Amino acid sequence: MTTIALFGAGGKMGCRITDNLKDSEYQMAYIEISPTGIENLRQRGLAPTPQEEALASADVAILALPDNLIERLSAQIIPQLKAGALVICLDPAAPLAGKVAHRDDLAYFVTHPCHPSVFSYDVTPEQRRDFFGGIKSPQAIVNALMHGTGADYERGEAIAKLMYGPVTRSHRVTVEQMAILEPALSETTGITCIKIIREAMDEAIRRGVPHDAARDFILGHINIELAILFDEIPVQFSDGAKKAMERARAQLIQPDWKNIFEPENIRACLEEITKAPV
Asked: 58-68: per-residue pLDDT in tens?
C-alpha cells in the first residue's frame, strides 16, 4: 500500500486534501504542528503523525504548506525521504523559484486545481456553492512533472484526481506553463481586473446608485459579457458597448500590459510570493 505523508494536513488547503484522501486506498500520515491545525484534524477523528515517523515510511510527500515557508521546511523534509519517493507541490511558485530542496533520486510533481467554471452546467445548488471545488462541484486540474519518469507522472496524477475530485479534465502542462496560468493569468491579471470591477461598483454606489441595484446590475452584465467573450453564446456586443469599451481601454489599460507574461516578470512575482517571512 502506498503511504502518503501530508504536510500541513490541518491547514486551509491541507484540510481539503485530508477530507478527500482519508478514506482512500492510500495509507495516510498527517503532519501538523499548529494548535489550530491539530484541532482541525481532531474534529475529523484524526491525529497528527510525528514527522520523522511519517518520513521514514512515506512513498509520497504532499507539501500543503505556505509558499513562503516551503524553502525552509523542504530543507528539513527532503533529506529524510527514501529514494524513489514522489514530492507533490500544490503550486508552481516555490518549485519554479528554486525554493524546494532537490534530490536527483526523488520525483517532483506539481498540481493545481482550475476551480469550478462559471460555465458549469447541470450542477445542483449545493454544487454551485462549492466555489473552490474539491467538495461537491466538478472541476478541471493542471499537472506538471518537474523531475521524474512517466510512471511518476501517472502516480501524481492519480493522487491529484482524488485530492481535487470530482475532476472533469486533467491537463498536462510544464511547470513554466503553470506559472503563466498562475500567477500571471489568474492572479496578476484576473484578480486585478475583477478587483477594478468591484471598485467600479463601489464608486457607482458612492455616486448614489442603490447598493442592491448596482450589485444586481453588474453581476448580471458580467454573466452576459463573460458568455460573449469566452464564446459560450454566438452573440456580439452592441455598437454602443464596443465604443464605450474602446474609449475606456486607453484610460484603464497600459499599452504594454502583456509584459506581465514575460519570464522575468513572472520570476520576480514568484520571488516575492515565496520570500520567507522576516
From this structure: 999 999 999 99
Report residue 245 as a C-alpha cell: 469599451
φ, ψ of residue 144 to 5 degrees: the values are -145, 140
Cα of 24 vs its chain's centroid, Å: 22
| Per-residue model confidence as pLDDT tens digits over 65-124 | 999 999 999 999 999 999 999 999 999 999 999 999 999 999 999 999 999 999 998 899
What integer pLDDT is reported at residue 210 of this predicted model?
98
d(CA 276, CA 65): 12
Alpha helices (H) in the chain, listed in sequence order: 12-21, 35-43, 51-57, 70-77, 93-96, 125-128, 150-163, 175-179, 192-206, 211-229, 239-252, 263-274
**Structural domain range at position 13:** 3-173
Q: Does residue 182 contact residue 191 with C-beta atoms inside 8 Å? A: no
Mean pLDDT, residues 13-41: 97
Residue 234 has pLDDT above 90, yes or no: yes
Same domain, 120 and 152: yes
Confidence of residue 205 (pLDDT cuts 50, 70, 90): very high
Based on the domain organization, do 124 and 202 belong to the same domain?
no
Residues 200, 242, single domain; the answer is yes
Give yes or no: residues 206 and 259 share one domain.
yes
- Tell me the C-alpha distance between 15 and 76, whole Å: 22
* Residue 128 confidence (pLDDT) above 80: yes
Contact assessment for residue 64 and residue 19, using Cβ atoms and an 8 Å cutoff = no
Specify whether 202 is located in the same domain as 148: no
Backbone φ/ψ region at 91: left (φ over 0), alpha (ψ -120 to 50), beta: beta
Would you call 145 helix, strand, or coil by DSSP?
A: strand
273: exposed, middle or buried (Cβ count in 10 Å: 0-12, 13-18, 19+): middle
